[in-house]
């Protein structure tokens, strides 16, 4: 193997025996086409859905289920030892149970026992199987040990059934794999939010004036979604309260859609009841129309419209900070400013009482709708962390880099 081959990230794609096995072909294609060296390790049951020839052709490596093939290479040990990432997609209830209890009856389960790299499980099964207490205990065990078990999607299942248990979008699983590999390559703790529940708000609220019009803002939700996705990649259980964001759900994240500021308050406070950290990245409207008109407000010729009277919306960030749902809960706010950015940010930090405040300059062509951002993160202890212009995922990771040690300190 030449130097260039050795430098390619080595990924083991484990495939267990569920109907969603065919979707793993798309994940495999994306991994190989982006320069990853992928070895597919299917279970015997998986080969009933997708044959060995397909896996071998797409990966460029032989795909085998047995520990007895190429015994001189000790595959049941070497494959896991050499991997930079193991991703099991789909992961059936049976596979989760075997992994949680350390069973090793085929090549994939042996590989899981010998891997010292990050491990991702992407479950797919019927709702009743996912919600069964045995499966939930197995998932909790795997997460406690540092594995990343993403939440399955909600949607059409096998046959006519619909519910939670659908295989997540392969594109989103691929994005998760890349985030985990990138953090590992940087020497960062990959799953430092394992066992934590975090709540993130995203997007902009809309305050209705009549059935047609509303008072809103320019927020796209991209920064909040990046915060949710990076938290999931670091092992957290994530609840994303999303206001009017037209973005795909991040893989492994529970998304709660809302419309108005009052709806967001209700959803955030409910989710925060057992959360270790809450990050309010949403652009929550400060005001709403005092009166909602049930019929469309008509334009009358030669007559000026009636003034729109506004009233204050609830201050969710201040409420969260003043009344923490549990001891040690970390609260993070966002401040979108147009002038005197840091001065206004420091004043807002003191006024809101949160632990961290992400301050950035916004405007018509700044931040809103962009894939990039820059900010300064102010802390209640007086420290300031500048984040240079770059992808919103980079800012999100910096936020979690500051949250994680605070959570660890609070646990002591």
Structural class: alpha/beta
Q: Give the tally of structural domains.
A: 2
Largest sheet: 8 strands, mixed
Distance between the termini: 47 Å
Query: Could you estimate the helical fraction of the residues in percent?
Result: 25-40%
Q: According to CATH, what is the class of the largest domain? A: Alpha Beta
- State the fourth-level CATH superfamily of the largest domain: CoaB-like
Number of helices: 14
Describe the fold and architecture.
- Keywords: Decarboxylase, Flavoprotein, FMN, Ligase, Lyase, Magnesium, Metal-binding, Multifunctional enzyme.
- In the N-terminal section; belongs to the HFCD (homo-oligomeric flavin containing Cys decarboxylase) superfamily.
- It holds the Pfam family Flavoprotein.
- CTP binds at residues 286, 296, 314-317, 334, 348, 352.
- Its cofactor is Mg(2+); FMN.
- This protein has 14 helices and 19 strands.
- The strands form five sheets. Strands 12-11-8-13-16-17-18-19 form an eight-stranded mixed beta sheet, sandwiched between helices. Strands 2-1-3-4-5 form a five-stranded parallel beta sheet, with helices on both faces. Strands 6-7 form a two-stranded antiparallel sheet.
- It has two domains: 9-185, 3-Layer(aba) Sandwich (Rossmann fold); 197-411, CoaB-like (Rossmann fold).
- The chain has 412 residues and is an alpha/beta fold.
- Strand 16 (330-337), helix 13 (341-352) and strand 17 (356-361) form a beta-alpha-beta unit.
- The mean pLDDT is 89.
- It is globular, with a radius of gyration of 24 Å.
- Helix 2 (24-33) runs parallel beside helix 3, helix 2 crosses helix 9 and helix 4 (75-82) packs across helix 6.
């Amino acid at each position: 193997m030449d130097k260039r081959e050795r430098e390619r990230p080595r990924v083991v794609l484990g495939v267990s025996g569920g109907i969603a096995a065919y979707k793993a072909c798309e994940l495999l294609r994306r991994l190989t086409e982006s320069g990853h060296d992928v070895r597919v390790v299917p279970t015997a049951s998986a080969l009933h859905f997708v044959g060995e020839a397909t896996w071998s052709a797409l990966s460029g490596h032989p795909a085998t289920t047995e520990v007895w093939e190429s015994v001189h290479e000790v595959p049941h040990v070497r494959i896991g030892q050499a991997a930079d990432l193991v991703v099991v997609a789909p992961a059936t209830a049976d596979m989760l149970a075997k992994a949680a209890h350390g069973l090793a009856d085929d090549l994939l389960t042996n590989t899981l026992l010998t891997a010292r790299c990050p491990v991702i499980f992407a479950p797919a099964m019927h709702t009743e199987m996912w919600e069964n207490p045995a499966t939930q205990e197995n998932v909790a065990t795997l997460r406690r040990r540092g594995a990343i078990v993403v939440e399955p999607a909600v949607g059409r299942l096998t046959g006519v059934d619909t519910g939670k248990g659908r295989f997540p979008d392969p594109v989103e699983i691929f994005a998760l794999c890349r985030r985990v590999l990138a953090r590992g390559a940087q020497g960062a703790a990959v799953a430092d939010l394992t066992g934590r529940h975090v709540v993130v708000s995203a997007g902009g609220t809309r305050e209705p004036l009549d059935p047609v019009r509303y008072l809103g803002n320019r927020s796209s939700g991209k920064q909040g979604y990046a915060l949710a996705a990076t938290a999931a990649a670091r092992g957290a259980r994530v609840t994303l309260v999303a206001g009017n964001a037209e973005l795909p759900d991040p893989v492994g994240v529970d998304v709660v859609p809302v419309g108005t500021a009052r709806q967001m308050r209700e959803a955030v406070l409910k989710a925060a009841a057992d959360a270790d950290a809450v990050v309010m990245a949403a652009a929550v409207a400060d005001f709403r129309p005092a009166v909602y008109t049930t019929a469309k407000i008509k334009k009358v010729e030669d007559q000026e419209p009636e003034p729109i009277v506004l009233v204050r919306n609830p201050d969710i960030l201040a409420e969260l900070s003043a009344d923490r749902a549990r001891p040690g809960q970390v609260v993070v706010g966002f401040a979108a400013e147009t002038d005197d950015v840091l001065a206004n940010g420091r004043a807002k930090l003191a006024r809101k009482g949160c632990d961290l405040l992400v301050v950035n300059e916004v405007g018509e062509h700044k931040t809103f709708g962009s894939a990039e951002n820059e900010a300064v993160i102010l802390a209640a202890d007086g420290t300031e962390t500048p984040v240079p212009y770059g992808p919103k995922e980079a800012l999100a990771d910096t936020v979690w880099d500051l949250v994680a040690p605070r959570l660890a300190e609070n646990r002591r």
